[in-house]
Amino acid sequence: MTDINISFGWNTYQSCQTKTCSYSYIQESGISYWRDSNIIISLFFYVTVAGVYDMSLISDEIQREAEVLVTIPTLSYKYYAKFNPENLNLSLGSIQIDNPGYVKVNFQGTKSMINRKTGNYPKLKSLVVSNVVNRNAIKFVQDSFSSHFGRRGPSVHLNYNLASQTKIKHFFNEVTVPKYWDVVGTYAMAIGFQYGYFGMQVNSESERRILFSVWSPQETDDPSSILPENQVKLVQKGNNTVINDFGNEGSGGQSYLVYPWVAGVSYQFRLIGYPNKNGYSTFSAYFKDPTKSEGYILIASWKRPKTQSYLTGLYSFLENFDPEKGNLSRKAYFNNQKAVNYNGKDVKVLSASFSYDETADKQQRYDYDGGVDAENGYYLKNCGFFDKTKVRKGEVFTKSK
Fold it and tell me: According to the lineage, what is the superkingdom (predicted)?
């Protein structure tokens, strides 16, 4: 038997039970500055082997006596943990896990025993799960992995397989984020290619964007370091498109339109790419709202230097870019793909293969899914700690029509 130490800094999220809360700090060192009894701290881990497990809490700072309610909703588990400055390690008793899957453990400070003048609730460092048959019985985001990407959750991709990959000039895709799945931090990327990506985002509770970015051929995360001969050049932009540089994931030219897209509507995306004679290739992105009469509108057109290419490596993805929202699920449908080559001839889109990022590949998170819906086309789903699906990396999806 062995003990498993699950760090709060890599595996927890917080939610508010009222309209306003004083949020705690979630850092790699743990949960600190926690003083609001309306905040619930939720820790997640995945159990692969059913059995009886013992749990205990480790704190590295207890400023005062306090009582914390610990619950596991799916197990009807409830425990009142009473902290005092003399005891930094507190047993929580045992839990019975009958089936493999995610376990959510909630921590909430009680209103009794609160003395706001003498400090915060205990700092939460780790949850220890004991009586474990082997280390592979309990899965979670490890301390050795990036807390940022672990808390964001896995990104998932559809890689499109075409009847011919030669000189594809136009690619069309249609994206629908279902109602109630449009969570802040969502990026439903409609058309990715070797040199950039194009899709729609939920940036905040009040702002949404249609985003198109093209990477520079110079490999750097610092856009200010790009040499003039390696800079992506703007050819044209839409009337309300914002133009920026971007960095931290490669660098290049960024264009976006602030646009109030709505969950449940199927938006249409068109990307055009072709080589020029002067050593550049031009990539242009167009967006269509089917509820409007204006047809496709230009987001932006960029020239990429040292590039002679049509559209290659076509794919879509679904990601969460907000690590504070990795406990909330996302879903998007991708339908009605169409490819056209440089001669204006249609090229059939045969299928799509499924893949995911390092977070899933290294088994830090299991909350990912993909497949085909008979009515809505291909779909991707991620985050939210739903139970593990049977979809495999490299699995090929084919639509019936």
Answer: Eukaryota
Which CATH architecture group holds 2-144? Sandwich (2.60)
Lowest mean pLDDT of 13-17, 221-225, 307-311, 380-384, name the range. 221-225
pLDDT digits (tens, 9 = 90+) for 322-337: 999 999 999 999 999 9
In this structure, are residues 272 and 254 in contact, taking their beta carbons and an 8 Å threshold?
no
For residue 88, name the pLDDT band (cuts at 50, 70, 90).
Answer: confident
Task: Give the side-chain half-sphere CA count within 13 A for 72.
Answer: 17
Farthest CA pair distance, the chain: 77
Whether residue 39 has pLDDT greater than 60:
yes
Per the CB < 8 A criterion, the answer to whether 267 and 290 are in contact is: yes
* CA-based torsion, 73, 383, 94, 90: positive or negative: negative
Q: Above 70 in pLDDT, residue 41? A: yes
The token pair that represents 173 in the structure block: 């895709």
Report the C-alpha gap between 234 and 250 in whole angstroms: 18
Helix (H, G, I), strand (E, B) or coil at 31: strand
Residues 6 or more apart whose Cβ sits within 8 Å of residue 168: 162, 273, 310, 311, 312, 314, 339, 340, 341, 342, 347
Structure tokens at 194: 């070797």
Residue 118: per-residue pLDDT? 61
Q: Please state which of the four CATH numbers 1.10.490, 3.30.1490, 3.30.70, 2.60.120 is assigned to the domain occupying 151-397.
A: 2.60.120
Q: Does 2-144 match 151-397 in CATH topology?
A: yes
- Percent of the chain topping pLDDT 90: 79
The domain limits of the chain are 2-144, 151-397
State the average pLDDT over residues 14-20.
90
0.70 exceeded by the pTM? Answer: yes
Query: Which strands, in side-by-side order, build the sheet including 51-58?
Result: 2-7, 126-132, 51-58, 89-97
Give the integer Cα–Cα distance in Å for 318 and 314: 14
Q: Residue 223's pLDDT is what? A: 86
